[in-house]
Amino acid sequence: MSIWRVILSIIFPPLAVIDKGCGSVLIVLILTICGWIPGVIAALIILNNPNK
């Protein structure tokens, strides 16, 4: 996980997970609409996942 991805996930979380697939982007987008902090947390968890 690069520092640019972390900064991007703090500023606009759905854009940080754009290469992880449509489902991840949709989940992070919905969480960001509900509240900024849940979107940031979800984006950081998805980016920190070593499986993909």
- pLDDT averaged over residues: 91
- Provide the low-confidence segments as ranges: none
SS-based structural class?
mainly alpha
How many strand segments?
A: 0
Whole-number tally of structural domains: 1
Rg (CA only): 10 Å
The end-to-end distance, rounded to whole angstroms, is 12 Å
Secondary-structure element pattern, one letter each? HHHH
Level of helix content?
A: over 70%
Mass-distribution shape = globular
For the largest beta-sheet, the strand count, sense and barrel status come to: none
Number of helices: 4
- Estimate what percentage of residues fall within beta strands: under 5%
Subcellular location: Membrane
Organism: Aequorivita viscosa
Protein name: Proteolipid membrane potential modulator
Main location: membrane
Question: How does this model look, in words?
Answer:
It comes from Aequorivita viscosa. One of its GO terms (cellular component) is membrane. It is found in: Membrane. This is Proteolipid membrane potential modulator. Keywords: Membrane, Transmembrane, Transmembrane helix. The protein is an all-alpha fold and 52 residues long. The protein has one domain (3-48). It contains 4 helices and no strands. It has helices at residues 3-11, 13-16, 22-34, 36-48. The relative contact order is 0.21.
